[in-house]
């Protein structure tokens, strides 16, 4: 869902990075590394690890973007 948010606000690079983060950026290296240390259990743990890391990455991007949206054009914070 975060990748769709970034697509909708015209940030395709961030959207692509978030979209690819679980399957390519985190899962493949995690499988290779954990498999060598833990065998089959490492392969099974690679999925949850990749999910957690992808979540942290998406959360960091969304918090950063929401902070930018909370400011007006002059850099002042918008107060409710």
Task: Map the helices and strands.
Blueprint (H helix, E strand, L loop, with lengths): L1 H7 L3 H27 L1 H30 L11
Helix pairs in contact: 1-2, 2-3
- Quote the beta fraction: under 5%
Q: What's the total helix number?
A: 3
* Overall number of strands: 0
**First-to-last CA distance:** 27 Å
Find the structural class using helix and strand composition.
Answer: mainly alpha
- Report the sheet with the most strands, covering strand number, pairing sense and barrel closure: none
Element order: H for helix, E for strand: HHH
Q: Mean of residue pLDDT?
A: 88
Cα gyration radius (Å):
17 Å
**Helicity level:** over 70%
Shape: elongated
